[in-house]
Write a structure and sequence with these properties.
The chain has about 425 residues and is α/β, with parallel strands linked by helices. It has eleven helices and 20 strands. The strands form seven sheets. The chain has a five-stranded mixed β-sheet with strand order 11-10-9-12-17. Helix 6 packs parallel to helix 9 and helix 10 packs parallel to helix 11.
Length: about 425
């Protein structure tokens, strides 16, 4: 039957919230944990639910617009929306929203704003760490001109890759993921100072109209050796990202298949004193000697360990999550100077090579950890291969619950079979910012 969310003892399990959003709650809120969930006990402001129902995704905002006044919390289950204190829910997922009242309408900070405080009042937001940029890398593997450059590079001196996956078409395929990744950071990380897009001179046809604020960076702007270009090696490109002109000291590096799944704060990626958070997986990196048949990712991880052992006496023990990598530009420049030969060799490799290092996605985070300039972090992470048959039920569930901080849809094989389903999911999860 129906249960009132306002009565916390009767509503256990029908609303869920997060530690990260506690700063968005009214300052006087008291929260009670029940069965692993947290619900607002008192007080809860009441506002016009009809206005909330009429709001669209274009009205969502993580920061109160100018002149806005706090207007309390409301809950949504399916199409039903009402003030949290008066909301009646059936068993199932309930999302809690923070709202601001403005003269021109309602701005909602959804879709999953809440807190997870065992008791007492909500804590204030953590201090901002200063300017933070985002850096995306992207390639359009369907571009005929790009394909011709790749063919010539493969047939040229030293062009033949040493591992069968190094030039795999799936590594360069794209189904407009970048468009949705940019929508995600625009909606869920509005505090980013600037967003850079690093490409081989390519430009998505929709970029100028939908994201005029994104700064395009060509490979020849960050590679010091013209002979290293064109490159089709993501390791090479990652080894030069910290040379982007004007890049902030603190930045996030994202692949085009990384999507912020809900609102993020600077404190999710950097500590109050500016240290990056590193997100480790439970998948160990083999502690064995480099082998000729090692996958390029494993080979790079072993090369990373050789550098770490020489410089810090530590090793890269586990793979990192496919999620935004929080970086310090000064640390990247420092490490490049200490491992100049390995960085230069990686930058010169047109395709993934057994001599590569994976600078941005492993070596730099581990070096920062080893030198006390990073800390281990935690996040709710959704990872899936686009070829996985499990996506048939995992994506609808994710769309309903929206309980991942970061989503990664990784293509290890060409995604054509499931391209339409993935595209439909992305369009539903990340609709246009302006309706």
């Amino acid at each position: 039957g129906l249960r009132a969310v306002g009565a916390v003892r009767e509503a256990a399990g029908h609303a869920w919230t997060r530690v990260r959003d506690r700063g968005l709650a009214p300052s006087g809120s008291v929260w009670t944990r029940l069965r692993g969930h947290a619900l607002a006990a008192t007080p809860v402001d009441v506002f016009d639910a009809d206005a909330a129902i009429a709001a669209t995704l274009a009205d969502l905002s993580a920061i109160a617009p100018d002149g806005a006044a706090p207007s309390g919390l409301y809950a949504q289950q399916g199409d039903a929306i009402a003030p949290l204190a008066r909301f009646r829910a059936r068993p199932g997922a309930v999302r809690v929203f923070r709202a601001w009242a403005t003269r021109g309408g309602r701005y909602l900070a959804g879709p999953d704003v809440g807190v997870d405080v065992v008791g007492g009042v909500a804590q204030p937001p953590e201090a901002h760490t200063g300017d933070i940029d985002a850096v995306f890398t992207w390639v359009d593997g369907s571009d005929p001109a790009w394909q011709e450059r790749k063919r010539r590079r493969l047939e040229g001196p030293g062009g033949a890759p040493r591992h069968e996956t190094a030039a795999n078409d799936a590594r360069f395929a794209q189904i407009d993921e970048l468009r949705y990744a940019l929508r995600a950071v625009a909606r869920y990380a509005p505090w980013l100072r600037r967003v850079y897009l690093v490409t081989d001179g390519q430009r998505p046809p929709w970029l100028a109209e939908e994201f005029p604020e994104v700064t395009l960076v060509r490979h020849d702007e960050i590679f010091s050796d013209p002979a290293a270009l064109p490159t089709f090696n993501s390791h090479a490109i990652e080894s030069r990202l910290h040379h982007i002109p004007g890049l902030a000291e603190r930045y996030l590096y994202l692949n085009d298949d990384f999507f912020l799944g809900r609102y993020a704060r600077p404190a999710d990626y950097f500590t109050a004193d500016g240290k990056p958070r590193v997100f480790l997986t439970e998948e160990a990196i083999p502690d064995t000697a480099l082998a000729a048949d090692d996958h390029p990712v494993v080979a790079a991880a072993k090369n990373n360990t050789a550098i770490l052992q020489r410089l810090t006496g530590t090793r890269a023990s586990h793979k990192l999550k496919h999620a935004p990598y929080a970086m310090l530009r000064s640390v990247a420049l420092e490490l490049e100077a200490l491992a100049a030969e390995q960085f230069a060799a990686t930058a010169r490799s047109p395709f993934r090579s057994p001599t590569d290092v994976s600078a941005a996605s492993s070596l730099l985070p581990y070096y920062a950890l080893a030198t006390g300039r990073a800390v281990a972090g935690e996040m709710s992470h959704f990872y899936a291969d686009v070829a996985s048959p499990e996506l048939r039920w995992r994506l609808p569930r994710l769309l309903e619950h929206r309980d991942a901080d970061v989503i990664c849809l990784n293509a290890t094989t060409a995604p054509t079979r499931r391209a339409s389903a993935i595209h439909a999911f992305l369009e539903a999860y990340f609709p246009p910012l302006k309706a």
